[in-house]
Input
Amino acid sequence: MKKKFQNLPLRSGVGIVVLNKENKVFVAKRIDNPKNFWQMPQGGVDENEDFYSAALRELKEETSIVNVKLIKEIEDRFTYILPNHLIGIIWKGKFKGQKLKWFIMRFVGSESEINIKTKNPEFLDWKWINLDDLTKIAVNFKLEVYQKVQSEVKKVLN
Output
């Protein structure tokens, strides 16, 4: 990491694993990175907002999903650092990466509820994938986080 970025703080955030009734994972393709990388919903925590409230808000803002039941809050927080070429661009250069609190949730609504064409859209497309494929679709700098999250979800499902 370039010296000028190493002192930047990490952004506090949340990530949401949304499982359907077949235990497939919701992923979406970002508008700003339309290559074949997909991600789970995630985002920042607002001032005076608790992690769970932030997770529900981000999920609704990004996907329109509101009908979920909490399965598990993952105890650890997982961190990723942006690659040098993105530091200074993402989050207006205020952060070098994110430290995320993850929640595993069950989607209990109808698929017609899912709408990524939101007020401030972040995604081009969405799909359900097998849990084992989660690490195959992640952008490289989030891969370690996705491996840890995948492992936590497997513990819950076994």
About this structure: Strands lie at 10-19, 25-30, 42-44, 68-81, 97-107, 123-129.
